[in-house]
Amino acid sequence: MPPAKIEPGRDPEMVQRTQKMNVVFALTSIGLLIAISLMVWADYNREWKAYQTRFNDLEVKLTRQQIEQALGKVDAARRQELDGLIARGRGEEAARRAEIAKAQAEVDRLKGRWYSVDQNFRFTKARIDVARYQYEEEAHRGRGDAETKLTGLRKLEDQWRSYREEREKVEAERDAAQAKVAELEKTRLAAEKIQGELFKEKNRLEDKLRKIQPGVASFIRNLPVLDMANPTLKVNQIITANLQDDVIFTGTPKVDRCTTCHLGIDKKGYEEADQPFRTHPNLDLYLAGPHPIEKVGCTVCHQGRGRATSFVGAVHTPSTTDQEKAWGRYSKSKVYERWHYWDYPMTSKGTTESQCLKCHQGQVEVPKAEQLNAGILLVERYGCFGCHKIKGWESLRKVGPDLGQIASKTNEEWMYRWIKEPRAFRATRMPQIWGVRLDETDEQKARNDTEANAVIAYVRDKSGKRDYPAPPAGDLVAGRKLFESVGCLACHRVGDDKRGVSGLDAANFRAHGPHLDGTGSKVKAGWLYAWVRNPKSYWHETKMPNLRLTEKEAADVTAYLMSLKNDEFLARPRPALDKKVRDEILLKQYLEGQYSVAEASSRLAAMDDGQRTLLLGEKTIARYGCFGCHTIAGFEKTSPVGVELTEEGSKLVERLDFGFEEGKIPHTLPAWVHRKLLEPRVFDKDKEKRPEELLRMPKFHFASEEADAIVTAVMSFSKEQVPLAAQRQLKAEDRAVENGRRLVRTLNCQGCHQIGDKGGAFRAVIEDQLETSGGDTLQAQALSPPMLYNEKSAIGEGARVHTPWLHGFLSDPGNHVRPWLQVRMPTFEFSEQDLNTITQYFASQDKVPYPYDPRPAASDPALVAVGKNLFEKWQCVKCHVVAGKLPNQEPANMAPDLAKVPERLRPDWIARWLADPGKIAPGTRMPANFPADPTENSFPEILGGDQKKQIEAVRAYLLTLGRPTLPAGRIAARTE
Q: Which of 178, 238, 743, 943 could form a disulfide with 949 if both were Cys (CB 3.0 to 4.6 A apart)?
C-alpha cells in the first residue's frame, strides 16, 4: 500500500503519530468490545438457564399430553352432538343476521348512553360531597351564606336523584336489548356453555400452553441485555420465615434459590422425570401441609447453599463414588469437589431425615421419619452414648449388664471366649474388640489374647460372689410351652425366629432383650432360676420385668433355657496368658508413657505376677471403654473414651482422616461415618503407628442398612439452631405424650401391645402357634394383649379406662380382666412417677380429662331394666365373663369380665364401643348390635327402635354390674 499523501503545511511526524494512535485506538476498542462481549456472555450464559429451557420443553410436552387426556375424557358422541348444535345455532344466526345486527346496534347505543348517564351520576355524587362539606363549614362558623350553600346542596341532591332514575331506566332498556340478542343466539350460546363446562380442563391447559410455549417474543425477552426487563428465564427464590443462615457467626436471612433448577419439585406429573425436574416425594407432607415450601423453603431440610444457582455452588453431596465420578462433569478438573467455603453441605441421599430433629425437638419419634427414628433407636440400643458424649443423653442407663456380680452368673472360661468373639456364641449387640483389624499381624494377635485374659482376670477379681442353690427339677417340655406362651418371646428370640420382625432386625420390638441361644452354656442354673423369678433381686436397674412365675413355672422355664447349649463355642481353645507380652505391653504402652524409662522399669519389677495382670486388665478396660456399657468396679466416674458426638453432624469433612480409603468412598462426612461403622479401624490400614496410637472403636457387625440408619442419626447431631418460632411447639399434653412414649419405648410395651400403627409383635407368635396347632389365626386377636391406641379412630386406653383403675392395674397386673389368657402382663415395679407418666400419656393421647376420678351416677331403674332386657336378648353371657363365672366357650371366644365395667370403663367409651366396636378395635369378635341403618335394628319394639336410647339403656345396666342393685320388685314396678 503506498504511503498516505501528506497535505501541504502538515507536520509529517504528527501525521505518522496520529495514524499509529488511530491503529492503537482501533485495536484497543476492538479488544474492549470483545472483553465486554465476553463479560456479558459470561453473565448471560448461566448453568440454570439450560435447565429452565429443558424444563420448558418438558412442561410443554406434558401439557400437550394432559390436553389429549382431558379431551379423551369427553365422550366423542357428546362432542359431535355439541358441534352439531353450534353449527345449527350459527345457521340460525346467519338467517337472522339483519335482525341480530339491529339488536346488537341497539345494545351498543344503550351501552354508550348508560356510560354517559353513569358518569353524570358519579360526578354529581362527588359534587354533593363537596357541597355538603362547604355547607357544614359555613354553618359551623355562623356565616350568612349558609342558607345559600344548603339550597345549592338540595338542588344537587335532586339532580343526582334524577340521574339515578335515568340510569336505572337505561339499564333496564340495555338488559332487555341484551336479552333479545341472547334470545336470537340462544341455540349457539347454550351449546357453547355446555361445551365450555365439558372442556373446562382442556381450555385451562390450552391457556397454560399458550403462555409457556416458546416463541419469538420469549426469544427476544431472553436475549442478552434485553433480559433485564421481563425475561421468561429467571432466578426463582424463596425467602423463608424466621430462618437464618450462620455466615461467619452472623445470622443472615435464609434465601433459597433451589427452585431455579428444581422446577418440577412442587408440581405433580414429574414423578418419573430426571433430576433436577422430579416431583418431590410425598408432596402433600413435605411441600404442603405442615411444611409449606413458601415458608419452610428447601435448605432447612436439605442444607446446602441456598443462594447459589450453580450445581457446585449449591454444595451438592454425592452418595456413592460412582455418583462422585459422574458429577466430575461440573468441574473443570473433571473431579467433583464440593464448595469448601460453606459449612453446611447438602445432605446426601438417604440422610435428609437427619434434619428433622432441628424443628421436632423433644419428640421421641418424628412422624414419617422412619430412617431417623430407626437410627436413633439403634444408637440407644447399641449404647453409643456410653463411649461418646451426646448432649441430652447423659441420663440414659448403660445398655450392658452390671458386672459387679458376674462371677455369680457365669464362669471365667465362657467370659473369655465371649469377649474375644461374641457373635461366635449367638446374635448379639455386644461389639467385638479384638481380631477386627483388616491387616492384623501375629504380634497383634498375641497382644489381643493377652489383653483379653487380663480383662477377665480384672473383672473376676472385682466381682462379688453370691451363692445360688440348685433349682428344683423342672419339666423341659412344659418350660418351653410356658416360655413361648407367657410373653417372653415379645422381647427375646431363640434361633432364627423372624415372627413379627420387620425392617431393621436390631431395631424391631423382639430385639429389645438379648437372643437366648446357648443360655445353658452361659449361665449357672441356680442363677437363672433366681433371675426368672425376680430379675431385680440381681440387678435393680434391669428392664426385665417380673412375670410372677411360681416355683414350678420358674423351674420349668429354667430347665428349658438350660437345654439351649452351644458346646462348640465352649470347645474353642483358650490360649494361656503370655507373661512376656503382658510385661512388654505394660512397660512400653502404659508405664513409660507415664513415668521415666528407669522409673517405669522399677515399678514393673516391684509388682508380683497377679498385680501385673490386674493392672493390664484395668488399663485395657480404660483404653477400650468397656465401662461405657457395663458397670465395673473402679470405673464409676471415668469419662467416656470416644469423641463427643453432640455436633458430629456439623463436622467439616476437612477434619476427617480418610487414610488410604481416599478414592474408595465419597469424600463426605456421611460416607466416612458409614465406613467407620462397618469397619471401625479401616482408616489405620497400611499406616505405621505405635500400638497406643491405633484406633480402638470395636466392631458391631452392623448390616449396611443399620449403618445407613445410624448415619442418619449421627447427622442429626448438629450445631445448627432453628429459631424457636420455627420449631414445633409442644403443649403440656404433647409433653405428657412424649414422656409416656419414652417410658413405653424403654420398657418395650409395644413388644406385646399395638399402639398406633406399630407394635403388637407377640401377636405374630400367637398366630403362628394357632396355625401350627390347626387353630384359627383369626382368634389371635382374642388371645393377644389388647391394642392400646387406634390411630384411625384416635381412641385408645386413655379414653377406655378410669385413671384409678389403670393406676391400680399397672401397680398390680395380677388382677386379670381376661384370666384365661396364657400371655401374662408382667409386673414392672413402677415408681409413683412412672405410674403417673403412663396414665397421663394414655389420657393425653386420647385427649380426655386427666386425672379422671369416676363418680357413680344415679341410674334410672326403668332404663336399667330395659338394658338388662337387651343384654339378655343378645345373650352376652355366652361370651362374656360375669363376676368370675366363665362361659362355656373356647378361650379364643371369651370376652372380658363385665363385673369390672363400673370400676374399669369410662361411660363415654362404653357408648362409643356399643355403637361401633369395629371402629375402635378392627377385627374384634364383638358383634355390631346397632347397624348403620337404624331401620335394620333387631329390636324395633324396644324404646321405639331408637338406637341411641338403647345404647344408653345397655350402658346403664352394665354400670350396675359388680355393684349392689335395686331390689327386683322395685325394678319390676318401675318397669311397669
A: 943
Interior/surface letters 537-570, b for 16+ CB within 10 angstroms, e for the rest:
ebbeeeebbbbbbeeebbbbbbbbbbebebeebb
How are beta strands 250-256 and 754-755 bridged, if at all? unpaired
For residues 330 and 311, is the Cβ–Cβ distance under 8 A? yes
DSSP 880: B
- Going from N- to C-terminal start, the domains of the chain cover 1-44, 75-198, 235-346, 396-467+578-638, 477-562, 730-846, 861-975
What's the distance, CA 260 to chain centroid?
27
State which fold the 477-562 domain adopts.
Cytochrome Bc1 Complex; Chain D, domain 2 (1.10.760)
Q: Which of 238-242, 389-393, 528-532, 808-812 has the lowest mean pLDDT?
A: 238-242
| Domain covering 861-975, topology | Cytochrome Bc1 Complex; Chain D, domain 2 (1.10.760)
Q: How confident is the model at residue 976 (pLDDT cuts 50, 70, 90)?
A: very low
Task: Say if residue 249's pLDDT is above 50.
Answer: yes
Distance CA 402, CA 542 (A): 9
Average pLDDT over residues 930-934: 87
How far is residue 896's CA from residue 815's CA, in Å, rounded to a whole number? 12
DSSP string, 159-215: HHHHHHHHHHHHHHHHHHHHHHHHHHTHHHHHHHHHHHHHTHHHHHHHHHHHHHS--
**Whole-number Å distance between alpha carbons of 342 and 246:** 10
Confidence (pLDDT) at 100: 75
Is-cis flag, bond preceding 854, omega within 30?
Answer: no
Give the amino acid at 218: S
Residue corresponding to grid cell 345486527: 101
Asked whether residue 195 carries a pLDDT value surpassing 80, the answer given is no
Cell triple for residue 519?
443360655
State the architecture of 730-846 in CATH terms: Orthogonal Bundle (1.10)
- Angstrom distances, CA of residue 776 to CA of 217, 331, 486, 497, 779: 73, 64, 19, 21, 6
Chain centroid to CA 76: how far?
Answer: 47
Interval 614-673: pLDDT, tens:
999 999 999 999 999 999 999 999 999 999 999 999 999 999 999 998 889 999 999 999
- Asked if domains 477-562 and 730-846 share a fold, the reply is yes
> What is the radius of gyration, based on Cα positions, of the chain?
42
pLDDT in tens, 715-763: 999 988 888 878 888 888 899 999 999 999 999 999 999 999 999 999 9
Distance CA 970, CA 763 (A): 47
Return the closest-CA partner of residue 348 out of 86, 827, 712, 693.
712
pLDDT over threshold 90, residue 189 = no
CA pair distance 282, 292, nearest whole angstrom: 13
User: What does the alpha-carbon distance between residue 549 and residue 42 come to, in Å, rounded to a whole number?
Assistant: 81
Is residue 540 classed as helix, strand or coil in its secondary structure?
coil
pTM for the model stands at: 0.85
Joined together, the cell numbers standing for residue 652 give: 467439616
Q: What's the pLDDT tens digit per position in 801-830?
A: 999 999 999 999 986 788 888 999 999 999
Place of cell 348390635: 929
Q: Is the pLDDT of residue 480 over 70?
A: yes
Q: Is the peptide bond before 290 cis (omega within 30 degrees of 0)?
A: no
In the predicted structure, residue 331 carries a pLDDT above the cut 80: no
Residue 2 has pLDDT above 60, yes or no: no
- Which residues make beta-bridge pairs with 755? 758, 789
Instruction: Answer whether 520's CB lies under 8 Å from 527's CB.
Output: no
pLDDT over 70 (residue 130): yes
Give the contacts of 316 (CB within 8 A, at least 6 positions apart): 304, 327, 338, 345, 346
Residue located via cell numbers 491387616: 439
